[in-house]
Amino acid sequence: MYTSEYISNENLPSLSELSLKKEEFNELNKDVVEFYKESNIFRKILLKRKVHLLKNEKEYIGFIWITQDSFKNIKIQSMYVKEEYGYKGYQELLKCILNNNKSNIIYECVETSYNTRILDKLNFIRHEGIIVMELSLENYEVSNFTSDKIEFKTFTKYKDEEIRCGLQNEIFKSSNRIALKVEDIIFDENQEYYLNEGSIFLLYNGQYIGYGQIIKESNKLSIVNFGLVEKYRKLGYGTILLNYLIKLAKHYGHPKLYLKVDYENYAAQKLYYRLGFRDIQIYRIYSYEG
Question: Source organism's superkingdom (predicted)?
Answer without folding.
Answer: Bacteria
